[in-house]
Each structure stands twice: as structure tokens, then as C-alpha cells.
Amino acid sequence: MSETRWAALLRGVNVGGRNKLTMSELRELLEGLGYGRVVSFIQSGNVALDAFDVSGVELARDISVAIEKRFGLAVAVVVRSHGELVAVVADNPMAEHVEQPDKLLVGFAGAILDPAALTPVAGSIDEIVVAGRELYLFCPNGQGRAKLPNFDRQLGQPVTVRNWNTVARLLSMTAAG
Q: Which candidate in 118, 159, 174, 176 could, as Cys together with 107 as Cys, close a disulfide (CB 3.0–4.6 Å)?
């Protein structure tokens, strides 16, 4: 059997008082499903775990189904292996902005994204680069003031966004050891 360390990113958990899910309950659920070394980071649904012989698609589906079954929440889940997170960091087309980690964001999707499907918001100064299953975003005025398109609607799938500090933390959480 092959073990992989994964990051599971839950979309829309504990945001604006909706989809309330404590990280202790989430960790308990994932441990009950047989995943190892489950650890969470902040309250917005970032978890690292070990799983044996499972693809990312299967893992995301299994976690999403388990959350809905146990807590009644329909939550999109996107996963990345440690190796995939290494590539997200290494292949960052906006590396010149890493010194502003609160303004540099990564949107994670479950499948390859079509950059042609994205229509920028008129007047926006925010930068967006689509690369595979990721969106790299630079929001010079911060995420709260960003004028971004509705990614889910335009791209036809859920996209969950994390700032660069969180991406770096997920990378360290998924490292072996």
C-alpha cells in the first residue's frame, strides 16, 4: 500500500456564520474514516492527513460525502498531495509578489481550468493567471477590496481560495515527518 500526505481544502466553511463546522469535529470525522495524522489549520477548513491508496478525486469525494452525511453540510472539497503543493509553490507565475503574502492568493479547483472561460471585472486592477487546476491572484488592494469574477460560475466548478501564507502553511503541514 502507498501512503500519501494530503491537504484537504473545504470551501465556504465557517465563513459569514454559515456552514459552521468546528475543526475538532472535522478531525474526529476524518480520523473515524481511517485517515492518519489529521491536523487542521485555522477555522476555515484546512486539513492535512495521511491516506493509503486513494486518488485525489476519490479522497475529495469521500470527505465531502462524509461531511454531508454527518453534519448535513454540502461542502465542496479540493485536495492536493504534498507533491502537488510543492509544484503550486514552485510554478507560481506571480513569484514577484511573494513578499506580499496577504495579497497573493491561490484558487484551487478540482479539475483543469479553462482560462478562456474567465471574463475579468471591468475596472479591476487585480491580476489573475490560470495554470492547470490553480488560479494565481494578486490583489494589490487586498482580498477584501478585490474586484474578482465569480469563479465558480464562470469556470463551471467550485474554486476555493487561500492566501500565500496559508499555502505555505499547508505545504509544511503536508511534509513528511
A: 159
The per-residue pLDDT for range 118-139, each reduced to its tens digit, is 998 999 999 999 999 999 999 9
DSSP-assigned letters across all residues of 7-62: EEEESSTTBTTBS---HHHHHHHHHHTT-EEEEEETTTTEEEEEEES--HHHHHHH
Torsion of CA 83, 85, 91, 95, to 10 degrees: -140
Nearest by Cα to 47 from 88, 98, 9: 9
Predicted confidence band of residue 16 (pLDDT cuts 50, 70, 90) = low
Residue 132 to residue 99: CA distance in whole angstroms = 24
Helix (H) or strand (E) holding 128: strand 127-131
Q: What is the mean pLDDT of residues 81-92?
A: 97
pTM of the model: 0.94
Amino acid at 6: W
Residue 85 and residue 15: Cα distance in Å, rounded?
24
d(CA 15, CA 174): 24
